[in-house]
Design brief:
By secondary structure, this protein is an alpha/beta fold. It has nine helices and ten strands. Strand 9 and strand 10 form a beta hairpin. The structure holds adenosine-5'-triphosphate. Adenosine-5'-triphosphate (ATP) binds next to strand 2 and helix 2. Keywords: ATP-binding, Nucleotide-binding, Transport.
Length: 265
């Protein structure tokens, strides 16, 4: 088992990084001294301030924090959707923060999977075509054995020819998880993946995400407001004013709820 994100942070090995720290080959995602500033002058907003973070391969990290603390900005920078103002982001050994938009798109398609609260399936495509779309956009042929494994694992083997509107919310989210897994990405970023689901469906989706980490060694980074969701992760970082304020190792939902309550008071 790789070292957890919290161990590295609590020892300060990356927090004090200079931005020239070499990429760690065992990390699925690594941020070194990442700062993101929106705007300039008097209206500048420091959304991330010198954030360093290492997510080991096969790690499951939750990102929490009150509204405006920088969670989405962290996810966008870590996933190569946006570039930091300064600092380095490495995904699977590639320094995405140094790439242009076109190059980052290529890296994202091949090395990153995404799961969103609203599933983001294409309504006019079958479930099968939705699942294979990112691969086809990347100009790659799906590996039939892996696709069969993924589709069976998410419980959608009999649903591939249906349209998204013919599935329940939980089934649509499981299709989105299969889509995220199809390219065997270095990391899956999940943004409030259970935000639109009822409790029992959400629990099934969280069980599935946890199993993907345990069974396939999949790395997952999940932004969530929900202490129950975060309790499925290995570690939870709590953001405050663009910084990592706390790292909690395997906290239960009650502990997380109490910790977060402190930030809202
Ligand atoms: N495009 C932008 N332009 C200017 N400021 C922005 C932009 N995006 C985010 N911010 C600001 O950066 C800070 C961090 O925002 P971010 O969306 O990352 O927070 P968050 O923790 O994800 O919030 P929420 O839980 O409400 O989604 C906030 O002060 C926000 O207003």
């Amino acid at each position: 088992m790789s070292a957890s994100v919290s161990q590295l942070i609590s020892h300060g090995r990356l927090r004090r990084g200079t931005g020239t720290t070499p990429a760690d080959p065992d990390a699925a995602v690594q941020l070194v001294d990442v700062t993101k500033t929106y705007g300039a002058g008097d209206s500048a907003v420091a959304a991330l301030q010198s954030v360093s973070l290492r997510v080991p391969r096969g790690g499951f990290l939750a990102v929490m924090g009150r509204s405006g603390s920088g969670k989405s900005t962290l996810l966008h920078c870590a996933a190569g959707l946006d570039v930091p103002t300064s600092g380095t982001v490495t995904i699977g050994g590639t320094a995405v923060s140094r790439l242009n938009e076109t190059q980052r798109t290529v890296v994202r398609r091949q090395h990153v999977g995404f799961i969103f609260q609203s599933y983001n399936l294409i309504p006019s495509l079958s479930i099968q075509d939705n699942i294979t779309l990112p691969l086809r956009l990347a100009g790659e042929l799906p590996d039939p054995d892996w696709l069969r494994t993924v589709v069976e694992r998410v419980g959608l083997a009999g649903y591939l020819h249906r349209m998204p509107s013919e599935l329940s919310g939980g089934q649509q989210q499981r299709a989105a998880i299969a889509r995220a897994l199809a390219s065997r990405p270095d990391v899956i970023f999940a943004d409030e993946p259970t935000g639109a689901l009822d409790l029992s469906t959400a629990t099934a989706v969280l069980d599935l995400l946890r199993d993907l980490v345990t069974e396939f060694g999949q790395t997952v980074v999940m932004v969530t407001h929900d202490p129950l969701a975060a309790s499925y992760a290995d570690d939870t970082v709590v953001m405050l004013d663009g910084r990592i304020d706390q790292v909690l190792q395997r906290p239960d939902a009650a502990t997380l709820a109490a910790v977060l309550g402190g930030y809202h008071r």
